[in-house]
């Protein structure tokens, strides 16, 4: 769907199969069409058909994609990067904190096992451009794209700001209230959302796991994300045993139940999130 004059959102459905059941998911990729075309994120494996079919529908071809920016290294964002690059010849950009997992997906799986990982990711790709806070892409016609480092969900997660159109693309930096809690650092997640909230004149918030939110709805989503993270921290604190280390799987099952989330959500990456909550709690004691 077209969001602004130059930005298009492409919704990509997929499934995550776990021992506890199947989760129906979706993720967004974004096309920014200026004098140059930039693709932001690539969806899961085989998403290139959805993306390139949409590109053709709006009057462009694969070879016009000059750059693929990956907001971070997780499977639903890098899954079809190989095919996109092969079909378009584009270069790939990501933050230094994500580079090793993008360039070696087997390492990523070893260090962060995700259910049916290898069906979600085609394979590794090389990062041509290492991004940092404040980098700016000139897309021509006074259209600029600024890189914002927003860690928490992962160490090298980035967001992208288009001041000319009031667009903020946040990857997975802004969690959805009631959705899967996925982050590596609780405190960093809070700080990143507060950092994004500080941008004025926001017209469209584009979150990978949510439909586009316009005007005040975008700020409301960020407020809800902060409330949700604080609520999770409170639940973790409430359920944590006083003087012992909990069995993480059983503890996570209890937290999910208290949050009203389905048992199918119990998987290693959610457990990893609650570990981050426990770490944050212990650092304050």
Characterise the protein shown here.
The chain is of the alpha/beta class and 285 residues long. The protein contains 10 helices and 12 strands. The protein has helices spanning 48-57, 75-78, 81-88, 96-103, 105-111, 117-120, 186-197, 216-239, 248-259, 268-284, and strands at residues 7-18, 21-33, 37-40, 65-69, 91-95, 129-131, 136-138, 144-149, 158-162, 167-169, 204-206, 213-214. Strands 1-2-3-4-5-6 form a 6-stranded mixed beta sheet. A 6-stranded mixed beta sheet has the order 7-8-9-10-11-12, with helices on one face. Helix 8 (216-239) crosses helix 10 and helix 9 (248-259) packs across helix 10 (268-284). 45% of the residues are buried. InterPro entries: Metallo-B-lactamas, NDM-1-like, RibonucZ/Hydroxyglut_hydro.
Beta strands, count = 12
Uncertain ranges: none
The major β-sheet equals: 6 strands, mixed
Give the helix tally. Answer: 10
How big is the Rg? 19 Å
Protein name: MBL fold metallo-hydrolase
GO molecular function: hydrolase activity
Keywords: Hydrolase
InterPro entries: Metallo-B-lactamas (IPR001279), NDM-1-like (IPR050855), RibonucZ/Hydroxyglut_hydro (IPR036866)
Secondary structure topology:
Elements (H helix, E strand, L loop, with lengths): L6 E12 L2 E13 L3 E4 L7 H10 L7 E5 L5 H4 L2 H8 L2 E5 H8 L1 H7 L5 H4 L8 E3 L4 E3 L5 E6 L8 E5 L4 E3 L16 H12 L6 E3 L6 E2 L1 H24 L8 H12 L8 H17 L1
Parallel strand pairs: 3-4, 4-5, 5-6, 10-11
Antiparallel strand pairs: 1-2, 2-3, 7-8, 8-9, 9-10, 11-12
